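Quick one:
INPUT:
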């Protein structure tokens, strides 16, 4: 394992670095596909609300898309060429920018060369960026064999930052629960940390049939955080889909191995107690017999929670095992959880936290 792998950073860590040095130096975030690298633009924007967000996608650009000439005429009849820049770069605005140069490793060589001065000197054509403007870039890993390469002279102009794959519980807390992803999918993700492995940690692609591996002989669809999000959108409509159609759609989203394993979890989910039964009679509503199904109940309740039934849920939750209770509390206390205030202001919840040694001071982020 090399040093880049050992010291790889999370996306929040990358956001911190870019927020601090991005007005001086360009950081290129390099990580596995589908991990949410592009989400850094909005996250950095939250730290700099007075900046304009600009997104420049290198994969859609061909030579001539960076700058184009405009003939300028002098009073004496002579002329010269002035270069106008692509509006997606935002440099013509003359204001504070946060510019994300996406997929820089896949840029055609002419496109990359046209961006190098911007990434190093904050200049392009006749324009100079506002001194507080932030510039950063993203790229997939070269080892993924997706065509991402940066020549040495380009690497020497930037700071390359290797990103680590997020773990399943990190993804659940930071993305899946706050964004209301399907509870069955959340339960499957919790029980299967291998879904979040990097190919660089798997020597033989047969050892993990769910994920992308450059040495795998076939398999165009596989599990990434991005494709899990897509699978959730499909699962949320499953009451309108028959099993064959649902399975086929999942195969076309996360691959055959992932789809078959996920469908087994869908069958478990059919045995969940209804939300209404928990709301109406939390003392007697059914407790699932399988741990995986209990997790689904917790995730479903997190996603459907509101102030009116926190009391009923806390009564029901007290009947679950300790791990399931902790799963709910950790989810509810997360800074991005949309129903956080409704849960944390509930007296039964605060009593539970006090009785179980949970401190609220750590929640202030």
């Amino acid at each position: 394992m090399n040093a880049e792998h050992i010291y790889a950073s999370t996306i929040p860590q990358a956001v911190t670095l870019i927020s601090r040095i991005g007005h001086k130096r360009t950081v290129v975030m390099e990580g596995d596909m589908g991990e949410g690298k592009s989400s850094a633009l909005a996250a950095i924007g939250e730290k700099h609300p007075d900046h304009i967000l600009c997104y420049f996608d290198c994969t859609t650009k061909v030579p001539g898309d960076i700058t184009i000439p405009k003939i300028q005429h002098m009073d004496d009849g002579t002329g010269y060429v002035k270069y106008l820049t692509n509006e997606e770069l935002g440099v013509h605005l003359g204001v504070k920018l946060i510019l994300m140069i996406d997929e820089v490793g896949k840029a055609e060589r002419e496109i990359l060369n046209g961006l190098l001065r911007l990434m190093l000197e904050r200049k392009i054509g006749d324009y100079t960026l506002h001194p507080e403007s932030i510039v950063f870039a993203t790229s997939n890993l070269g080892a993924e064999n997706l065509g991402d390469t940066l020549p040495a002279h380009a690497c020497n102009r930037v700071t390359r930052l290797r990103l680590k794959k997020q773990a399943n519980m990190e993804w659940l807390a930071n993305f899946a629960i706050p964004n209301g992803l399907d509870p069955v999918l959340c339960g499957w993700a919790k029980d299967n940390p291998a879904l979040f492995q990097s190919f660089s940690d798997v020597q033989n692609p047969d050892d993990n049939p769910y994920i992308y591996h450059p040495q795998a002989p076939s398999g165009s669809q596989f599990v990434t955080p991005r494709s899990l999000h897509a699978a959730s959108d499909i699962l949320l409509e499953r009451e309108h889909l028959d099993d064959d159609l649902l399975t086929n759609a999942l195969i076309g989203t996360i691959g055959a191995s992932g789809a078959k394993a996920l469908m087994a979890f869908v069958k478990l989910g059919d045995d969940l107690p209804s939300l209404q039964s928990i709301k109406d009679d939390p003392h007697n509503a059914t407790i699932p017999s399988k741990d995986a199904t209990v997790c689904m109940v917790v995730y479903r309740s997190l996603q459907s929670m509101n102030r009116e039934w926190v009391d009923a849920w806390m009564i029901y939750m007290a009947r679950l095992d300790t791990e399931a209770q902790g799963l709910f509390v950790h989810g509810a206390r997360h800074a991005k959880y949309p129903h956080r205030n409704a849960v944390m202001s509930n007296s039964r919840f605060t009593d539970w936290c006090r009785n179980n040694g949970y401190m609220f001071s750590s929640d202030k982020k």
